[in-house]
Specification:
Blueprint: E1 2-4, H1 9-17, H2 21-27, E2 29-33, H3 35-43, E3 48-53, E4 67-70, H4 73-79, E5 88-93, E6 104-108, H5 114-126, E7 132-134, H6 144-149, E8 159-161, H7 165-172, E9 175-179, E10 185-186, E11 196-200, E12 215-218, H8 230-242
Parallel strand pairs: 1-4, 3-4, 6-7, 6-11, 7-8, 9-11, 9-12, 10-12
Antiparallel strand pairs: 2-5, 3-5
Helix pairs in contact: 5-8
Length: 245
């Protein structure tokens, strides 16, 4: 571990760039904030490239990092995105993207809200989902807000982008269940005991133009609500689906 008391401006600039998705993807790293997420990342076995920390936090956490920088409140504020930074920002290497052949697979079609995606990741891990698959247009799972909303679940649940949705779905060899706000088979009546790809659509426009041959499933809403938040809908369907596996 390398101890450096005062990071060069270039090091800070490099870290700030990681607020941009294209920079994160290019470098294969992302930012996290706060001792809790830091400990979760370390426990998940992720490599910590750089750790920016206030002196008052020294001795409270294990300094597991390639480089440790003691910095001022001002530097932490410039790197953090939360309104009340917790005195620690770290550059973390992305986890390995292992692929699991599960009976129940979740595919997210253009989920664009970082908070929704983070909550879906957290929920999927809670229900034992092995992988999440993301269509083009889905928000980066290592977006700062997504990471926080996932409560660290994104460190454990591999999120994989799919470039060609139709080809990928065809190659799964599973039944395809597309969630729709209404008009589909009620989720309690759908046979989730068979190998299934569950497709969750965009918050506003739902799923994109997928083949009509795919099954449509809906959550009964006797109260008359037009639709549910994507993360809430995912939780409800996964509760029902995992009960069958």
């Amino acid at each position: 571990m390398k101890r450096i008391d005062s990071p060069k401006n270039e090091v800070i600039k490099q870290a700030r760039k990681l607020h941009l998705s294209k920079e994160r993807k290019k470098a294969g790293v992302f930012l996290i904030e706060g001792p809790k997420l830091f400990s979760e990342a370390v426990n998940a076995g992720l490599r910590v490239r750089r750790l920016f920390i206030l002196e008052r936090l020294l001795g409270t956490i294990e300094l597991v990092a390639d480089e440790v920088f003691l910095v001022s409140e001002r530097v932490i504020e410039s790197l953090a995105e939360t309104e009340s930074p917790q005195g620690l920002v770290a550059v973390i290497e992305e986890p390995d993207r292992k692929v699991y052949d599960d009976n129940l697979v979740v595919f997210l079609d253009r989920i664009q809200d970082p908070g929704n995606l983070g909550t879906i990741i957290r929920t999927a891990r809670a229900f034992g989902i092995g992988n999440l698959y993301l269509s083009p247009g889905t928000v980066d799972p290592f977006n700062d807000k997504t990471v926080r909303a996932s409560a660290g679940a994104v460190f454990h649940l591999p999120c994989l982008y799919v470039s060609d949705t139709e080809t990928w779905l065809k190659n799964q060899g599973k039944q395809i269940a597309v969630t729709v706000p209404s008009g589909g088979t009620a989720i309690k009546e759908y046979d989730f005991s068979k190998p299934t790809v569950l497709v969750i659509g965009n918050e506003g426009s739902g799923v994109s133009d997928l083949k009509d041959e795919y099954s449509k499933i809906s959550i009964p809403m006797p109260g008359g609500t037009e639709s549910l938040n994507a993360a809430i809908a995912t939780a409800i369907v996964l509760y029902e689906a995992t009960a069958c596996h």
